[in-house]
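Most newcomers find our protein records easier to grasp once they have seen one. The structure tokens are whole numbers drawn from a learned vocabulary of backbone shapes. The record below serves as our worked example for the rest of this section.
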Amino acid sequence: MMNRFCFKALDRTMRDLLRHTNDASLHLSFGGKKIVFGGDFR
């Protein structure tokens, strides 16, 4: 199972990268991109 800090780091990175193309993406989850997490969530 992934630690929650990994998801937070991905969220911050996506927001930071995508804010150069769209200033509103700084306030959206994952910069406004759809993220699909897959795996066994038992």
